[in-house]
Specification:
Bound molecules: alpha-D-glucopyranose
Strand content: 15-25%
Structural class: alpha/beta
Radius of gyration: 24 Å
Shape: elongated
Number of helices: 13
Strand order of the largest sheet: 7-6-3-2-1-9-8
Order of helices and strands: HHEHHHHEHHEEEHEHHEEHEHEEEEEEEE
Distance between the termini: 61 Å
Length: 447
Amino acid sequence: MKRRTLLCIALAAAVFPLRAQRPGETPEQKAERMAWFDRAKLGIFIHWGVYAVDGVSESWSFYNNYLPYEQYMAQKAGFTAVNYKPADWARLIKESGAQYTVITSKHHDGVALWDTKASDLSVPKQTPAGRDVLTPFVKEARRLGLKIGLYYSLLDWSHPDYPNFTKTETRYAIADDPARWQRFLDFDFAQLRELSKACKPDLFWFDGDWEQSAETWHAPEIIDLLASYNKNVIVNSRIQGYGDYGTPEQGVPTVRPGDRYWELCYTINDSWGFQHTDLNFKTPQMVLKTFVDCLSMGGNLLLDIGPREDGTIPDEEVAVLQELGRWTRKHQEAVYGTRAGIPAGFVQGYTTLNETGDILYIYLPYKPVGPVEVKGLMNKVNRVWVVGSGNMLNYKVYNKNYWNDIPGLVEIDVPEQVLDPGITVLAVLLDGPVRLYKGAGEVITAN
Ligand code: GLC
């Protein structure tokens, strides 16, 4: 992502922390509204648009003057969707173990994937695809029980009434022509109404909010509008503080993010949309590790795929989704319904807890040499098994002295034959909610 964008997002986040709840909503009501999202853990993001034709960066390539606007828009003539099979997309996503999907209904370039009546700039009206390519996918995904999210760029660098065009060219200043800005707002509101009616999304994933303030966007009115179609709608943070959950982007957090609800949006190679030249794909194992990393910090992973203009999905991305599917199917109890684990340093691996806090899940993204050690565990361990295979594991406590409270070391034997080819998960059943020793040890005064 561009440095400028990063800076703007950082500023927006600093100036506008997320509202805890919507006006009139109790914390319990918000928790209820967020419940599916909290349990979902994995979502698949789809960036699909005319930018896939030449494989240039979505919208930013003309904004940053890497190529002229006309050349960018000439890609419309090559967007065919000839091999687009929305049912196959939905099945692949469902089989990855994802519980929701978020698709770009319109990126910053303004090209709508559905048949919008608010403008002519759309795939149905201006590309050989010649049809709405958004709602068929929404329908198939919903049929399989996936929750539906729509990415929508609030800013639109193509719209004649939007003030910014490229980084070197602006159309006008809002203060000089408020009526023109109002026309733009009417346009955004009209599109949001269309999307709400046509797709009844469970989630709106806004982007591009950083160019205007909450007041200028009429952010509270946007939320009210969406809520009038679906009172349980969830909105991401990118609406100048009026959203429900945080969206760290690309950089995997190293400490648990401050927002109660959050989701890491993340690419498989280095691009959101399809780019022929970007072959820097992460391996399925690398992505799986990042997924588990998010779980251990109590967040979701929103993993992006970038289909080609014809609707096919690169093999490398399919392989990642399939491996996630294999692994999540086998390890369901250690995925959905878990919450953030214990602090790093107690175990050499990632951890989560079950809802009641008496099962500690340990994720091993490596092949252990010798027993896996848990230190600082005040609880008695009742049993240890391998998630997905049910094999009971032997464990022993070492170094526990009876005269103080400092726990010993729990040493768990993990034989080679129980290892998962990706990430092995151990379940440690405790005698009650997890309790940790957080001291620095003491001098022994009796023996
Ligand atoms: C960024 C970019 C955009 C991308 C999005 C996904 O803010 O503007 O190109 O779609 O993040 O998270």
